[in-house]
Specification:
Blueprint (H helix, E strand, L loop, with lengths): L1 H27 L6 E5 L8 H5 L7 E5 L2 E4 L6 E7 L8 E6 L5 E7 L5 E6 L13 E6 L7 E8 L4 E9 H36 L2 H20 L19 H21 L6 H20 L6 H30 L3 H24 L8 H40 L9 H18 L3 E8 L2 H8 L1 H19 L4 E6 L2 E7 L3 H16 L2 E4 L2 E4 L2 E7 L6 H17 L5 E3 L1
Parallel strand pairs: 16-17
Antiparallel strand pairs: 1-2, 1-4, 3-10, 4-9, 5-8, 5-10, 6-7, 6-9, 11-13, 11-16, 12-13, 14-15
Length: 561
């Protein structure tokens, strides 16, 4: 019933977010005064001199939108750009969205009829002229009335172009705000990575290892996918990497994120089929990550072609799996959905761009950064809450293992561990150590005659009396059934015997009422003192033997080993 009630609402939220994102993308694709034509790709790699001399003018026969996706091609692409006249005062710039391109060369006409060539590259940018979201070229004043430019783009893979002409002051203001936003996004990711790395070192939890792993891979992916990594110090070292760093990082982060989601939000005993589905997606992404380690070439091109539909499949499947788990009662699934949904929507839009369904835009080049930063913060909060919950459960389980469920004194296992530690301490400090073996007399008869509830009430009375007499001088543990162990560090055999007598008298003077019947209680106690070189087994055996001496002597007495 929860699934039917919750699914439509969550679906409406998902559709609303997708619609909002597509609206923003549509706004970004507003009409531009630029006019662009593409040189016929069938001509292959033509000489720049022929293009600039106007020999191939009729071959520029395909009109392009200022924002366009072009298929992969082995030869460089040539575009002819017709600039409109300047509409206001001030200098203008030509901005080309900073998409991954090997090299682009802009040819500007000179007053003498020649051409100036200005180059830039996504992978070898000009640090002095680096803008985070665009390749920016200043336009000379002689083009204020309009003119024709030529753009040569070297890029064997699919090519995404977003070209615009705008006032320089507007470009610089946009970049200032953009840089501030980027700084906030990268800072959030880096801080979350460092904080959770500290938690991983301290807690050594697998969930934190997966979280830190996919967060680090996401950070690397965003740095390289946006080109920022190539302007950082030491950027030349990445040229030694044989494959695609961004492809490897994004597929590895996806695989680790799926594994994190499966362990964090899907209890294996309740979502077997969903868990298997995510395992298949994980395996696919690990295979893709391995493929991106291959040297760049035909092999990696096929890896990229396979990655696009795999990403297209993964987002809706992950959403469906998490939604079903959330509606089935998994609180962690709701947290994961809340954290992942913006990144999932951005991923689906990027996939739509890859398939040519949506136009490219640098908005979706950097959107993963902000979505990943939001996801990192949200999941960090959810993971911390989950770890706290697990710690509470673990502490409770540890308490139940260390303490008897009826009397709340030490369990047999905990009493053995504590006694072994006390013996080790006595060996090093030469301090005395004594042990009492206390047994409730006639417990079996009470159980048989009045019920086990009556016997439990008697055991509770005994443990209460021992604690009242013992105070802080020792520790009480239940050895089993009607037998209790009293650990007395620093006590001599005389001290232990005196304490055992006090316990015997206190118990004898107490009684338990069951169904209106008063039951007098008594205990038999064996006393033993630890001797140097004696093991824990020998010490317990001596106290146990003394206990049986007390029972054989008529019960309700203390015997010393």
């Amino acid at each position: 019933m929860g699934l039917r009630a919750g699914q439509p609402a969550a679906g409406r939220v998902m559709l609303w977010i997708v619609a909002l994102a597509m609206t923003l993308a549509g706004a970004a694709r507003a009409a531009s005064p630029l006019s662009m034509q593409l040189l016929d790709p069938a001509l292959g790699d033509v000489k720049a001199e022929r293009v600039l001399a106007g020999e191939l003018g009729p071959a520029f026969n395909r009109e392009l939108s200022p924002k366009v996706r072009l298929p992969a091609h082995s030869a460089p692409r040539w575009l002819r750009i017709a600039l409109p006249p300047r509409a206001d005062s001030g200098t203008r710039v030509l901005a080309i969205g900073r998409m991954p391109m090997q090299r682009l060369t802009l040819y500007l006409p000179r007053a003498d009829g020649g051409w100036d060539a200005r180059e830039d590259s996504f992978f070898e940018p000009r640090p002095a002229r680096f803008f985070p979201d665009a390749f920016v070229f200043d336009l000379p004043a002689r083009l204020d009335g309009g003119g024709v430019l030529y753009l040569r783009v070297e890029n064997r893979a699919r090519l995404y172009l977003a070209v615009d002409v705008l006032p320089a002051r507007k470009m610089y203001e946009r970049q200032r705000l953009f840089t501030m936003a980027l700084t906030a996004g990268f800072t959030a990711l880096a801080v979350m990575l460092l904080v959770n790395l500290v938690f991983l070192i301290g807690l050594r939890e697998k969930l934190y290892a997966l979280y830190v792993g996919f967060l680090a891979a996401q950070l690397i992916w965003v740095l390289f996918a946006t080109g920022i990594a190539y302007v950082l110090p030491g950027a030349g070292l990445w040229s030694a990497f044989p494959g695609s760093i961004s492809g490897f990082a994004v597929t590895l982060s996806s695989a680790l994120m799926l594994q994190f989601a499966r362990l964090y939000a899907l209890p294996a005993d309740r979502h077997r089929h969903a868990e298997r589905s995510l395992r298949v997606l994980e395996l696919g992404f690990f295979v893709l990550a391995a493929g991106y380690l291959l040297p760049v070439g035909e092999a990696t091109r096929w890896v990229s072609e396979f990655a696009t539909p795999w990403f297209a499949l993964s987002s809706p499947l992950l959403f469906a799996v998490m939604l079903r788990a959330a509606c089935s009662g998994s609180r962690q699934a709701w947290v994961f959905l809340l954290a992942w949904l913006p990144l999932g929507v951005v991923g689906m839009i990027r996939t739509a761009i890859s398939f040519g369904v949506a136009a490219p835009d640098t908005l979706f080049l950097y959107a993963p950064l902000f979505a990943a930063a939001y996801q990192a913060v949200t999941l960090a909060i959810g993971l911390a809450a989950r770890m706290l919950e697990l710690r509470v459960q673990r502490d409770r389980a540890q308490f139940l293992a260390d303490y008897d469920g009826l009397t709340a004194c030490l369990s047999r296992r905990a009493a053995e561990v504590r006694l072994r530690a006390l013996i080790d301490n006595a060996m090093h400090t030469q301090q005395p150590l004594a042990l009492l073996f206390v047994d409730l007399d006639h417990l079996k008869d009470i159980n048989d005659r009045y019920s086990h509830d009556a016997g439990d009430a008697c055991l509770l009375t005994l443990s209460r009396c021992v604690r009242e007499v013992l105070g802080t001088r020792g520790e009480l543990g239940r050895w089993g059934g009607d037998e209790f162990l009293v650990l007395l560090p620093g006590a001599t055999v005389e001290d232990a015997r005196a304490l055992a007598e006090q316990i015997r008298i206190r118990v004898r003077n107490s009684e338990t009422s069951v169904l209106g019947v008063r039951l007098p209680l008594s205990v038999s106690t064996g006393v033993a003192a630890w001797k140097p070189g004696e093991s824990i087994e020998e010490l317990v055996r001596h106290a146990d033997a003394a206990l049986y001496d007390a029972k054989r002597g008529g019960r309700n007495r203390v015997a010393v080993a």
